[in-house]
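Lab notebook, bench 4. The sequencing result for the construct came back, and we need a structural model before the next group meeting so we can plan mutations. Quick request posted to the team channel:

Model the 3D structure of this chain.
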Amino acid sequence: MLASALLAVALMVTPLEPLRLTPGGQEVMRVPGLTRVAVGTDEIVDVKVLNNGEVLLVGKQKGRTNLTLWANGRVTSRQ
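Done. Here's the predicted structure in token form:
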């Protein structure tokens, strides 16, 4: 069983389920109006901004980190 890289996901107002990535696993998020992205620990997950407000997350190693997204004049922090 592969160790999971855990990116716990929580919106400012409404909590969401954690996003779990295995090392090498990928997830594409669609974020309309995306202008900026930051990740707390880049040793855990790699973040790439794609076209049309899409963000590619790639698990790198086991651990936890946070993700901050700027979109439509709002900042959303996911941890």
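Residues 49 and 55 are 5 Å apart (CA to CA).
Will bring this to the meeting.
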